[in-house]
Amino acid sequence: MAAMLDMVDIAELKKLVIMGLNWAMLAGSCLMKLPQINNILKAGSVVGLSETFVINDCMAGLLFVYYNVLSGHPFMSWGENVIVGLQNAIIVLLYWHYSPQLSKAPRFLGAAAFVLGSIAVLIFGLPNAAVSALGAAPIVLGNGSKVPQIWKNMVQKHTGTMAAVSDPQRLTV
């Protein structure tokens, strides 16, 4: 056993373990919002969801991706946020689809402005202070977005099509 430990390069073993954990987080992120998407599709409804919550949750995740891209952090340390961000975008689109009473033009105009702004930020970058603010924005948006959802749940006395798995799963991914 001692001879075997002498052959193992501890630094390389640590790198291997970290890489395995990163891949596990990336794989786990593929399942992060699927329960929510599934609930919406099965119900054919977004009853119980707050539009403010789903939009801000989506923006928070994407802003964190932009922060990491602009900061030059390795993809494996934040890549799961790309997958969760795409799933959040699907939830936003499903929300709009299953809410025929909502005016779509201003929402799609806002989404287009966000996409164009995102492209500009990713291509041209931001000053360092703004990049730092971009890193903090998801904390404010992500946590702040939960307040309207909590309020809606209290008023309705139910969670509607909210998935119980998504938020607790965030603690592991």
Overview of this structure, please?
It is found in: Membrane. It comes from Symbiodinium pilosum (Dinoflagellate). Belongs to the MPDU1 (TC 2.A.43.3) family. The chain crosses the membrane at residues 16-34, 46-69, 75-96, 108-126. Its main location: membrane. By secondary structure, the chain is an all-alpha fold. The protein has one domain. Helices cover 75% and strands 0% of the residues. It has helices spanning 2-7, 10-29, 34-43, 51-71, 80-97, 104-124, 128-144, 146-156, 166-170. The protein is globular. It starts with a helix and ends with a helix.
Structure described in brief:
The protein is mostly helical and 173 residues long. The chain has helices at residues 2-7, 10-29, 34-43, 51-71, 80-97, 104-124, 128-144, 146-156, 166-170.
Radius of gyration: 19 Å
Number of domains: 1
Mean pLDDT: 86
Distance between the termini: 34 Å
What's the count of strands? Answer: 0
Structural class label: mainly alpha
Strand-and-helix sequence, N→C? HHHHHHHHH
Give the % helix: over 70%
How many helices does DSSP assign? 9
Instruction: Give the low-confidence spans.
Output: 167-173
Q: In percent terms, what proportion of residues is strand? A: under 5%
Shape summary: globular
Largest sheet, strands/sense/barrel = none
Task: Throw out a few tags for this protein.
173 residues, mainly alpha, 9 helices, 75% helix, 0% strand, disordered C terminus, Mpdu1 protein, membrane
